[in-house]
Write a structure and sequence with these properties.
By secondary structure, this protein is mostly helical. Helix content is 70%, strand content 5%. It has helices spanning 27-37, 39-61, 68-93, 101-112, 115-120, 126-148, 154-173, 183-189, 198-215, 218-228, 230-235, 240-266, 277-287, 299-318, 323-349; strands at 12-15, 18-22, 178-179, 192-193, 196-197, 268-269. A two-stranded antiparallel ribbon has the order 1-2. A two-stranded antiparallel ribbon has the order 3-6. A hairpin with a 2-residue loop joins strand 1 and strand 2.
């Protein structure tokens, strides 16, 4: 008579004085892993990093850092780059890149501050805002058309726009600074609501609108789908080329909005506005958790990334440290964020991490 065979079951540990006890479930570790791999988990890490920076600022600068006015300074400093970064988030989520947003910002500020525009806007200052946004949208349309229909690599197309927009701004302004003297325009943007500058409120509105567009609309779902697999998105019925044009127009519109905010802060339009802003915006987007290869984007992470860099700059300024040290610190943060992105991408793709 043969002995009955048994099949292996869930691991159990036997005790000498009692029945076997089941091993603890492995779901806890997988749940924790899923949490920290999610957008919320990554944002928690950014919040912790931001809180640590605040602690460093409080310890090293004391009351000069830990006061309401200084926090408003940090928010205003983050606002212009933040609006640009929201537009860049959409482009990168779709697997693209936009190196021209800084130059487009400068061009928008120059055109909006032209004497003829300011004279026409004397009785209706929103005309200056409309002109700045229109210039940004037109530049974005040009970028998108060249990339989507001209089949030029996004890096090269936007690099060309970076150079061309800066050169056009210099030609229009004749390399001179154009003073903004429209009182209605300056009074509005320098005003506040509930003690908070309108510039900060505009950043908040753009961020909320960007979050809703990316997470709660078909436009956002198509953006993520294109970044994940453009061929599959096209086969699913998404007009990839047309959507790409829309994305670059959106980035250009954000650059135009940021131009009006910078005009109000500096009271001048110049071709030098927005220099290297594209790098700061891309850095904030990457640190915030948006994948450079596309397929995943987070507006909340971008906002935290912008605030992180803005707070870092403020802490360094409060302690009279050189801008060179600031750049080194930013570089370290960016490299660390990209390395974490690669590790998360490997885990989600099932490939072993190095």
């Amino acid at each position: 008579m043969s002995e009955p065979t048994t099949t292996p079951s869930a691991p159990a540990s036997a005790t000498p004085d009692g029945p076997p006890t089941a091993a603890p479930p492995a779901d806890d570790r997988s749940t924790l892993k899923r949490l920290f791999s999610s957008t919320a988990g990554r944002n928690i890490g950014l919040v912790i990093a931001l809180a640590l920076l605040v602690v460093v600022g409080a310890v090293t600068a004391g009351e000069n850092f830990m006061n309401y006015d200084n926090f408003l300074v940090i928010a205003r400093l983050a606002s212009v780059i933040g609006v640009v970064a929201v537009g860049v988030t959409f482009v990168i989520t779709a697997g693209g890149i936009d190196l021209s947003v800084g130059s487009v910002l400068g061009l928008s500020s120059v055109v909006a501050s032209l004497g003829a525009i300011q004279t026409a806007a004397d009785g209706f200052w929103p005309l200056m805002v409309f002109v700045a946004i229109a210039v940004g949208v037109l530049a974005g349309l040009t970028n998108g058309f060249i990339i989507a229909y001209g089949k030029v690599v996004a890096f090269m197309a936007t690099l060309a726009m970076l150079v061309a927009a800066r050169g056009l701004a210099e030609l229009i302004s004749q390399r001179q600074t154009q003073v903004v003297n429209n009182d209605g325009f300056l009074d509005f943007f320098r005003g506040d609501l509930l003690g908070v500058s309108w510039v900060v409120w505009i950043f908040a509105l753009v961020a909320v609108g960007g979050w809703f567009l990316l997470n709660r609309t078909t436009f956002g779902r198509r953006t993520v789908a294109i970044g994940g697999n453009a061929t599959a998105a096209r086969l699913a019925g998404v007009n990839v080329r047309r959507h790409t044009v829309y994305l670059y127009m959106l980035a250009g519109a954000c650059a135009g909005i940021a131009a009006t905010m910078l005009l109000s802060r500096t009271t001048a339009g110049t071709s030098t506005h927005g220099q290297l802003y594209e790098l700061d915006a891309i850095a904030a987007v990457v640190v915030g958790g948006t994948l450079l290869v596309g397929g995943r984007g987070t507006i909340g992470g971008t906002v935290l990334g912008v605030l992180l860099f803005s707070t870092l700059t403020n802490v360094f300024t409060q302690n009279n440290l050189s801008t060179s040290v600031q750049l080194v610190a930013k570089g370290v943060i960016i490299v660390g964020a990209v390395m974490l992105q690669q590790r998360f991408a490997n885990r989600e793709g099932g490939s072993p991490s190095p």
